[in-house]
TrEMBL record:
Protein name, as recorded: TIGR02453 family protein
Pfam families from the UniProt entry: DUF2461 (PF09365)
Membrane-crossing residue ranges in chain numbering: none
Organism: Yoonia phaeophyticola
NCBIfam families in UniProt: TIGR02453 family protein (TIGR02453)
Length: 215
């Protein structure tokens, strides 16, 4: 078993145990395991992916490992810790809003993806205008990703926003207020190779989002 396989299996095992006892006491007792078997390898993975991703995009990459603590201020669920390991690579394009690539391991999933979770207001306006003006090119990118097994998050709006026709050929894209595509991790090659395979496929989407944000 490779160190990459170990990261995934260790994460699943750790989060299964955490889900059964999501308390501060359990966390403090098991934090050394998190630090050595999850956090340290995850930080190394972030670094290992950053270099080829910078080469792919020809742009600087900022990495982030999400904190284990949940924000429970506005949640009915007061369990204190996340039962997943999430990380991301932000493309530093200099545009008003940058897209990200991400990788996550949960108790029942291992996923890769990319996009912008929620558009800032000016970027949302740019997105809708470009979808309307350049429908064929944008739908070709999203259709290609769907054909490669990626799933787009459901549009936030139930109806096509004004002033666009409710029967617009890209109605589902116009109803989006952010664009994120993801799929389960493939099972061949090292973890770095699997992630970069997904990121290579996703780069046309993020490249499109950079150009739209910077329009």
């Amino acid at each position: 078993m490779s160190k990459n396989d170990t990261l995934i299996s260790d994460a699943v095992q750790f989060y299964e145990a955490l889900a059964a006892n999501n308390t501060k006491t359990w966390w403090q007792d098991n934090k050394p395991t998190y630090d050595t078997k999850l956090k340290a390898p995850a930080l190394q993975l972030l670094e290992d992916i950053a270099a080829p991703l910078a080469k792919l995009t020809d742009l600087p990459i900022h990495t982030k490992l999400f904190r284990p603590h949940r924000d429970v201020r506005f949640s009915k669920d007061k369990t204190p810790y996340n039962t997943h390991l999430h990380m991301m690579w932000r493309v530093e394009s200099g545009a008003p809003q940058d897209p990200v690539f991400f990788f996550g391991v949960g108790r029942d999933y291992v996923t890769t993806g990319a996009g912008i979770m929620g558009f800032d207001k000016p970027v949302l306006s740019n997105w809708r205008q470009m979808v309307d003006l350049d429908t064929d090119r944008i739908t070709a990118i999203t259709t290609d990703l769907t054909g490669q097994g990626f799933t787009f998050r459901e549009p936030a709006l139930k109806r096509v926003p004004a002033p666009f026709d409710k029967d617009h050929p890209a109605a589902s894209l116009l109803r989006m207020k952010g664009v994120v595509a993801s799929r389960e991790l493939e099972s061949s090659g090292t973890l770095e190779e699997q992630i970069m395979s997904a990121f290579n496929a996703l780069w046309p989407l993020n490249s499109l989002l950079i150009s739209i944000a910077d329009a």
